Amino acid sequence: MSDAHNTSVSIATDEPTRSGTGGATGITEDTISTPPPSPDRARKTVVRPGDRIFGSLASGSAVLISVIIGAIAVFLVWRAVPALQRNQVNFLTSREWITQDITDMAFGVLDLFQVTVLVSFFALFLAMPVALGIAIFLTSYSPDRLRKPLAYVIDLLAAVPSIVYGLWGMLVLAPFLRPVAEWLNTNLAWFPLFATGSGSIVGGGTIFTAGIVLAVMILPTIAAVSREVFVQTPTAHIEGALALGATRWEVVRTTVIPFGKSGYISGSMLGLGRALGETMALYLILRTTSQAFSWSLFDGGATIASKIALGYAEFNNDIQAGAYIAAGLVLFVLTFVVNAAARMIVAGKKD
Amino acid sequence: MNLKRNGALLGVVAAGALTLAACGTDNNAGSVDVDASASAAACDGKSNLSGAGSSAQKNAMDQFVSTYIAVCSEKGTNVNVAYNPTGSGDGRTQFIANQIDFAGSDSAIKDEQAAQAAERCAGNPAWNLPLVFGPVALAYNVEGVDELVLDAETAAKIFNGSITKWNDPAIAALNEGAELPDANITPIVRSDSSGTTDNFQQYLETASNGAWTSGAGSDFTGGVGEGAKGSAGVAQAVSGSPNSITYVEKSFADQNGLSIAQIDNGSGPVELTEETAGKAIEGAEFVPASEGDLTLDLSSIFGSSEEGAYPLVLATYEIVCSAGYDADTAAAVKSFLISAANEGQEGLSEQGYVPLPDAFKTRLTESIDAIAAG
Question: Which of A198, A287, A299, A317 to mutate to test binding with chain B, by most B CBs within 10 Å of its CB?
């Protein structure tokens, strides 16, 4: 034990004397393999144990998370393939979900995928403007003493467990929304989103209710991220605008929003990511249906995540579980695509 | 995941269930005084048993456990049984993986899984012991209709969409004199996979004279209706939607104040009571298999046309190793099941279950006694 320790120390002390860089580093091979025998003291880097430990912990974490993500993807594919091989219909375009009898499986993710997308984007559509309003109010309009408590309350919304949102949505919000839903359905049924769907408006277990609950759930994420960015608008920009005679609204429009746009968008995408994967609340609120999805807000159905939760208790074997895992894989990819899109948008905006 | 899922809708009734459980425990404590000496439970073996599976038998299991603990503490032994209602499929999987001592399941372990379970039991077959019976109600919400009679054929047609109106001639024929509204029927079904759905569909398949063609299984296959989550969910959905009907365990229908349809099994309408459901269980036959295994021939219950027997009963099993446990576990499993099959049955009807008929108890006790160690 002590021998090994000594050796490693001697190596560490040997190398710098040989290379002459003074970097007892071993950080990169480059520093050792290309020794610039420069007497220049400014190039010497002092490395203490703390640097090494912290450095390896940090890079270790980065490697670890990549490995975990990779392992999840491998796991999903590995478990999904046997089920997909037994599938008798097209997995991506079928609406059926028959997995009980593993010799006669027919399952497709189309309905689940469409419900997931509609409910998430509906939630995003509702949450984005409100979150923008909150963020702008907090950074530009709010009196100082209101700012902190209000921001705290918004953050608190994010801390409410999703099952609580689910119960609230199902037991409180759904009955409350019934007249609104009925009005929309009677007066605006010509608009496809408000057409009569497969869910019962009276029952309230529709995408309409679920989307509103989801909007509340993702609101704090979007608001918090946007506020963080808006708050960093350079004072010089704001003062410059004010000096040019801009009103408060004009200041917001010409400095705060352009500056924070990318943060707002990436916050929204974070929120969308949460909406896509949200399980518990939708599991409670959404009523399933046997009818095909018709892109109406008054449809019932299940999202990919809630479908998995609904089926979980009665998985009989790995093959049947594999069908659900295949659906999970689709969600995994969808979330990846959304995140990638968000990054592209943000990157584009920064240029 | 499990915690989340279980927390689900059942959370709504958790408060109510707790109160009920509390009442149950009080009652048990009273009755246990009488029973402890009479109890055949040996209270030996390891002190902590673990089981998991069927959520349909959760409340019954809670009662079995509290009775067992009370009986054993009177005999001077501290025991505990942890039962985790994670769902039948999960229970069977955990049993096969040797993570639990016994599984609760709404359907018997069979085929490939039975083979895997035998492997877990050191080469001995796993036994299905039907210990908990729960009647399933056809609960409906139709204004002005306090009494409703259905038979399996009409029920099948309602749940597969061939009957869509409450005043359909087929329903009217069974309910002479009742004022049935000219309204659409909203069937409410379980959106989660469930043994209740499986048993209900098997019932329809057995008894509907061929009207039910879409098979059984723990996912609803009728192709109509709205799916709500869990027993509490469907009961709540029916109480909130006029002109709807569902299949749900009796206790949930009662808790939500829903009307329960009588079932005409061919010998006249039968109301759902402890007696009528018990009568159907008494007539149950077993699948001839290995000695000791008590897998039910469900068609003998579902297809019963005996007068006054309510055929729609959900049978749930405890799955145990016939042998292959270590000595301590075998003793504890036997002791607990003996207690559950006897003194544990008292007061079960208050929880919405059907206590085991005596003849059935004897049969079950024989099997439990035959569980061997090693």
Answer: A287
Contact flag B12-A288 (C-beta cutoff 8 Å): no
**Is B136-277 a CATH 3.40.50.10610 domain?**
no
Domains of chain A: 1-46 (no CATH), 97-350 (1.10.3720.10)
Contacts of A286 (CB under 8 A, 6+ apart): A115, A119, A205, A206, A207, A210, A300, A301, A302, A303, A306, B191
- The residues of A whose Cβ lies within 8 A of any Cβ of B are 97-101, 163, 167, 170-171, 175, 199-200, 202-205, 279-280, 283-284, 286-290, 300, 302, 309-317
Intervals of chain B under pLDDT 50? 1-34
Mean pLDDT of A170-176: 90
- Set of chain A residues whose Cβ sits within 8 Å of the Cβ of B224: 290
Tens of pLDDT, residues A47-78? 888 899 999 999 999 999 999 999 999 999 99
Task: Select from B335, B65, B362, B9 the least CA-distant residue to A310.
Answer: B9
Q: Which residues pair with B130 in a beta bridge?
A: B317
Interface test with B, best of A102, A168, A316 (most B CBs within 10 A): A316
pLDDT at position A314 is 76
CATH code assigned to B3-134+285-295+314-369: 3.40.190.10
Question: Which segments of A87-173 does DSSP mark as H helices, in order?
Answer: 110-136, 144-159, 162-167
| Domain boundaries defined on chain B | 3-134+285-295+314-369, 136-277
List, for residues B140-170, the tens digit of each pLDDT value. 999 989 899 999 999 999 999 999 999 999 9
Does B36 count as an annotated binding residue? no
pLDDT at A34: 53
Chain B closest-CA separation from residue A288 CA (Å):
4
Give per-residue pLDDT as tens, B212-260.
998 888 889 888 888 988 888 899 889 988 899 999 999 889 888 999 9
Is A290 in Cβ contact with B225 (below 8 Å)? yes
**DSSP string for B42-98:** ---S-SEEEEEE-STTHHHHHHHHHHHHHHHHHTT---EEEEE---HHHHHHHHHTT
Q: What is the pLDDT of residue A316?
A: 77
Q: Which strands form B149-151's sheet, in the order they lie side by side?
A: B149-151, B262-264, B269-270
Best B5, B116, B205, B231 residue to mutate vs chain A (most A CBs within 10 Å): B5
Q: Is A295 helix (H, G, I), strand (E, B) or coil?
A: coil
**Dihedral over Cα of A186, A191, A196, A197: its sign:** negative
For residue B56, say whether it is annotated as part of any ligand binding site. Answer: yes
ipTM of the complex, rounded to two decimals: 0.72
Residues written for chain A? 351
Is 70 exceeded by the pLDDT of residue A351? no
- For A34, A79, A278, A324, the CA distances from A71, given in Å and listed in that order, are 36, 12, 22, 18
Q: What is the pTM of this model?
A: 0.78
Directed axis angle between helix A318-350 and helix A49-86, to 10°? 130
| Contact yes or no for A202 and B4 at CB 8 A | no
Contact A280 B221 (CB under 8 A): no
Report, as an integer, the average pLDDT of A114-130: 95
B89 in A contact zone (CB under 8 Å): yes
Does residue A230 contact residue A131 with C-beta atoms inside 8 Å? no
Summarize the confidence of residues A332-341 as an average pLDDT. 89
Would you say B54 is a known binding-site residue? Answer: yes
Which chain B positions have a beta carbon within 8 Å of A204's beta carbon? 240
The pLDDT, as a whole number, for residue B167 is 92
Establish, for the pair of chains A and B, how many residue pairs have beta carbons separated by less than 8 Å. 108
Taking the Cβ of residue B238 and every Cβ of chain A, the question of whether any pair is shorter than 8 Å is answered with no
